[in-house]
Here is the input.
Amino acid sequence: MKQHILPALRLTLVCVVFFCGIYTLAIFGIAQFAPNKGNGETISVNNKVVGYLLEGQNFSNDKYFYSRPSAAGYNAAGSSGSNKGPSNPDYLKDVESRIDSFLIHNPSIKKERIPSELVTASGSGLDPNLSPQAAYVQIPRIAKARNLSEERVRNIVELHVQKPLLGLFGTTTVNLLQLNIDLDKLN
Here is the structure.
């Protein structure tokens, strides 16, 4: 018994020292060379921080592109999904409610053209990006609310389309915070 317990205790002590001390300090040191020293990349307007690049925001005004719904209420401290499956009646009511709300604010869009990401929450509840298709479907509402041509709004969206890393890793996305800030700069 002694021959099994002592090595296990030593291994536990080595792992605690390495992972709680050395590894943590190494990652912290590397983060000091990252933008904003590893505290997250902030986005500022007129020297005021308005959000984080990698954190979803709640946009509900018709002149802004709507973001993906959040099961966490856009609270990074409580990042989580809803843990409700697609057959859960409460989940289905939430999705139907979101669809109805989207159709009220976007009357020119047919129900079947609504991208699922605009009515379903993500696993983290904090996605800062949408697919270009989810942005394009909102263009008529934005153009009308801002008194701009749909073509002008589409051009702004296309400026914010981010391709996958090296054309391989990830998906094509649009960062909504940056897009909505640039829309505000137009008016």
Notes: Residues 54-186 form one domain. The chain has a mean pLDDT of 85. The longest helix spans residues 2-31.
